[in-house]
Structures are given as C-alpha cells and as structure tokens.
Amino acid sequence: MTQEFVIALGKNALSTAFIVAAPMLLTGLVVGLIIGVFQAVTQIQEMTLTFIPKILVVVLTLFLFLPWMLNVLISFATNVFNSISTVAH
Asked: Which of 27, 37, 56, 88 minimizes the number of CB atoms within 10 Å of its CB?
C-alpha cells in the first residue's frame, strides 16, 4: 500500500461523500434562503417557520434521490473492494 493509493482512496471517499450529501444540502439551503427572504419581507419571526419546511424538503429530497445515492455508494464500495486485491499482494 503506497501513499498515493491512500491519498487517492481518501480523495475518492471525500468526493463521494460530498456528491451524496449535495442534493439534500442544496435543497435545504435554497428553502432556507427562500424562507429567510419571506420572513424579512413579512417581518414574521416564527422559529417553526424555518425548521419544518426545511425538514420536510430535505426528507422529500432524500426519498427522491435515495436510489441514485445508493448507486453511487455501491459503486464506491465496489471499487474499494476491488482495489483490496491489488493492495493485498
């Protein structure tokens, strides 16, 4: 096992984690911005108005993107398991 292999594996793991988390984080960000603008315009400062829509949208996004996210994670795991045979020599 070389340093290059470990660095490449770590880089691939981090990029996979960012790719898998991106849909939920981006939708939460967009909904939060929209609600923030709405609250600023209407001067409604209700705390539940920020949390409940974001939670619902993130859960909905999770259900919509779950098959794609699982495919990405399975692909990553398959690559890691396949690379074990090259490292074990």
From this structure: 88
pLDDT in tens, 23-55: 999 999 999 999 999 988 988 888 788 889 999
Per the structure, the complete domain to which residue 41 belongs is given by 16-79
What does each C-alpha distance from 18 to 8, 12, 31, 68 come to in angstroms?
Answer: 15, 10, 19, 14
Of residues 57, 50, 56, the one with CA closest to residue 26: 57
Cα 89 to Cα 73: distance, rounded to the nearest angstrom: 26
Number of alpha helices (DSSP H) and beta strands (DSSP E) in the chain: 2, 0
